[in-house]
Automatic annotation (TrEMBL):
This is COP9 signalosome complex subunit 2. It comes from Pyrenophora seminiperda CCB06. Pfam families: PCI (PF01399). Residues 431-485 are annotated as: Disordered. SUPFAM superfamilies: Winged helix' DNA-binding domain.
Amino acid sequence: MISCKTRAMRNDDDEQNGDVDIENKYYNAKQLKADDPEAAIDEFLGMPALEEEKSDWGFKGLKQAIKLEFKLARYDKAVEHYKELLTYVKSAVTRNYSEKSINNMLDFIEKAAEDVDAYRCMEKFYALTLDIFQSTNNERLWLKTNIKLARLWLDRKDYRQLTDKLRELHKACQLEDGTDDPSKGTYSLEVYSLEILMYAETRNNKRLKVALYQRALKVKSAVPHPKIMGIIRECGENWKGAQSDFFESFKNYDEAGSLQRIQVLKYLVLATMLSGSDINPFDSQETKPYQNDPRISTMTDLVNAYQLEDIHGYEKILQNNKDLLEDPFIAENIDEVTRNVRTKAVVKLVAPYTRFTLAFISKQLKISLSEVQEIVGFLIVDKRLRGKINQQSGTVEIESSTDMDRVQAMKEWSSAIGSLWQTVLNEGEGFRSDEGGSQFTPGGGSGGSGAGGVGMVWSQGSMGGKSGRAKGKGAGRMSGMVGKG
């Protein structure tokens, strides 16, 4: 008869052998992944059957199988096995491990999705995740998954569902009094950035974006991804801050090998132009390898033309690369860059002239007359041009800075002479006598040059009181431009 002790020892041995078998199966399957993914899937899916009760090994096997199925576009099978994976969450694995694993799984499928069917599969994954983790009260993963779902709807331009989801997320990130919950600041900022992008895509009222920006600034205790902060700073036209954030975001994505690095690098180039920086964004060692990348070459050419102030080259690049404007974030902000390029070109073109016509600028720079007038008006208000626009004739007359400086110098000289003359009258010894009488003779006089006289004759003629017309420039004739002479 077998003793209880012997039976227990055999059970322990059986468990150990079972663990060894399932572990061997796992590592054998991993070796097959690269060369024979179909066989690897079968091996991974065979692991749960070897478990006496659900454990880490079955969870790991299902994870690997789902990733391979998604890569092979076996989406229905991936969803089926994801449902099975979620049954391990409540008891077989720890809360932290399950949360991290599920989040990594969702990140994986988000990066790997390339077609409509993949996006549908993603949506099913998100729905299953939300259902299971809402029942386990894991609010953190619930928020992360909902934000991923909102991002998916933004990519698919499903604005109706996106609007409802953003409203739900805002509420989840708020306290009972309606203010943002400081403990959920990072999630709040991500929700704001998604809402800003939605408004950018739908060309919504810019005032709504500004209001969002002001609300986002009030969020405290947040450590968001740099890309999110870049989008928020751009909304507030903080180009320098956006440039810095997009650079950090690019480095993060580049180190992780994420394809998002290309999109963020485009945003970095855009922010560089908006900030007016003279530093080429491809001068850094992190971005330099991408300078000639075909996916970024248009932005490379654009920033080069911008920094060289080559308006015709810049306009030609935009004209020949309409697909660049398919990105709503770039499409919304490139107009500001174009305006800056044209403004610089106007300043450069009119620099040698005292008078010019708006039509001349329009023809030279190949931009509309109304935009030329708007740019010149802005330059005058901004005091970068000293002049006036004649609306009737369509001409602009520039006040010469040299003439203005001369007038100012004459005023200062005249003031100084008057002050000196007053001092001489009040303090000069030559105008006093011991008897208290003045030796000053208005008509001339013979004070001589002795100790007691001033040797001076005062007459109106000596002050150059000759009458006549003031010298100045005539009206002249103008054909488009008049140069400074």
